[in-house]
Amino acid sequence: MESLTVDSLGCLDSSRFGLQARITVVASGPPGATLVVSWQHHSGAIDPPVTVATETVRLGTGSVTLTRSHDFGNDESLQWGVRVGSDPRPESTPTAYRELPAIDCRQPG
């Protein structure tokens, strides 16, 4: 695994309360690395993010861009985010994280 990034993070359409992430992974070496996408929430600077859902994706070799989403439903946390990691971990960026204020994704259309 060479690198992984969360290229963009945005709200789902107006009828669902969640996030959509665009993730780019550059893998080298033999196929079989695993990408771990963890959807997280928290309610302020003193509260660390808590994982509410996790998904794993098996990777091949080369560069791939994926889009993943999570519906947070009635989650009342202040911040929603996504943390992306892999096994094996890239040396340059072991994990990538982005978040948005949850209220931005709860407002009607």
Major sheet description: 4 strands, antiparallel
General shape = elongated
Helix tally equals: 0
Distance between the termini: 39 Å
Mean pLDDT: 87
Taking pLDDT < 50 over at least 5 consecutive residues as the criterion, the unreliable ranges are none
C-alpha Rg, in Å?
14 Å
Structural class: mainly beta
Order of helices and strands: EEEEEEE
Oligomer: single chain
Summed up, what is this model?
This protein has 109 residues and is mainly β. The protein has strands spanning 3-11, 18-27, 34-42, 50-58, 62-71, 79-87, 95-101. A hairpin with a 6-residue loop joins strand 1 and strand 2.
Structural account:
This protein is mostly beta strands. The protein is 0% helix and 58% strand. The chain is built from no helices and seven strands. The strands form two sheets. It has a four-stranded antiparallel sheet with strand order 4-3-6-7, with no helix packed on it. A three-stranded antiparallel sheet has the order 1-2-5, with no helix packed on it. Strand 6 and strand 7 form a beta hairpin.
Task: For this entry, give a set of tags.
mainly beta, three-stranded antiparallel beta sheet, four-stranded antiparallel beta sheet, 109 residues
Set down the secondary structure blueprint:
Layout lengths: L2 E9 L6 E10 L6 E9 L7 E9 L3 E10 L7 E9 L7 E7 L8
Antiparallel strand pairs: 1-2, 2-5, 3-4, 3-6, 6-7
